[in-house]
Design brief:
5-stranded parallel β-sheet; 244 residues; alpha/beta; 11 strands
Length: 244
Amino acid sequence: MTGRAHAISLGRVLVTRPQPAGSETAARLVSGGYEPVLLPLSRTIALSFAFPEGPFAALTVTSANAFRHLDMERLKLFLGLPLFAVGQGTAQAARKAGFGHVIDGGGDAVRLAATMQRELPAQARILYLAGRVRQPVFEDEMKAAKLDMHAVDVYDTEAIAYTSAALRNALGDTPFAAVMLYSGVAATSLVAAMREIEPPFDEKTRFLCISARVAGRLPPVWRANALVADHPDEEGLFRLFAKL
């Protein structure tokens, strides 16, 4: 978070990321001199599922949440296969799970699909360990690439509801310097939650959005103060702090 001293000194930052990742983000903010406030707007939960019949040429994962909700014993059968991860964070989680051949797909769904098309033969069978709530972009790209991908929903995302009193207690009165938004679900949930109270956002509060799609979920008055990451990942979000 270079350039912090020229941007905000001890500014409060609202972190809407689900746990446990939210605490990791908070620790990073503290190390940069910011005051994080955690308000997870959703949680991920494990789903019951069965793997489709193999064999598979490769696996792919677009969120580290898949590994948080999988029994590692069930993955042993696949550890020898190449695993294509959407970006660095997911790739790191895959290696921690025991995968030895992990390919970083470049940080977003389009780049991941292009990487897999380049590395795998046409009609290769691929197992996709997915979340139930997801955008169709990746699967559309894979279909266009003529790769035979089989998605398995291993986790779901559900909203966390807060009472007005809980929101006021969590947020306090001091205006936030920034609000970090990692998904469209988070943006929509934040808008709904803030209808219950007078949020501590002012004309200087910036809404740091992981993508333009996320910024588009905000009401006009917030959208006018939105900044969009140059790359749809946490590194892209943290680069936005230099613009505050």
